[in-house]
Amino acid sequence: MVMLIPYNSSFEIPTLARISDFFGFHHTLVPSAALESSLPASSSDDSRITLNAWQVHPNALFVIMCEEVYVGFIRINYRGPNVAWIEDIFVDPSQRGHGIASAAIAAAEAIIRHTPGYTAVCLDVSPRNENALRLYHRLGYNGLSLITIRKEFGGSKCEVPISLLDLDFKY
Fold first, then answer.
1. How many C-beta neighbours within 10 Å does residue 38 have?
2. What are the phi and psi torsion angles at 95 (to 5°)?
3. Integer Cα distance of 70 and 142 in angstroms
4. Interval 81-93: pLDDT, tens
5. Quick one: which of 101, 103, 77 has its CA closest to 89?
6. Which segments of 4-63 does DSSP mark as H helices, in order?
7. Residues 6+ apart with CB under 8 A from 93
8. How many Cα atoms within 13 Å fall on the side-chain side of residue 91?
């Protein structure tokens, strides 16, 4: 059984490690040539700063428990008056493929649904994170709400072409 437990300081050390792994994974989505020249070294200080920021309102940070074992985290951000965002979700690599992320997202949706005034949930995903895109689509996230476009200074890290509304982009 998957449960979301509100984050508390007893989870600090493993959460800091998971935050580092989370951002490390996202760095792997960038082509390696661009990665070498543009990514700062990650540190435990960076993870601590992130963890502290994730605990400030309007954020709600939860640890994901599966069969009483801490296996990841999920963060909800109540950005506006009626739409919340699942900002970040991480499941330990050894625990992936067992439905844990799906159950954690369903639990986060239930929390949001029962928060007065909230009528929708959104999330952001890197177009290079195809596994996450497939998961979110399978869970019913199929309505486009916002599209974030990006301009790189010093050369683009985006190489894969895509057309949307007859406009050409790269990711």
1. 14
2. -105, 0
3. 30
4. 999 999 999 999 9
5. 101
6. 12-28, 32-38, 44-54
7. 21
8. 19
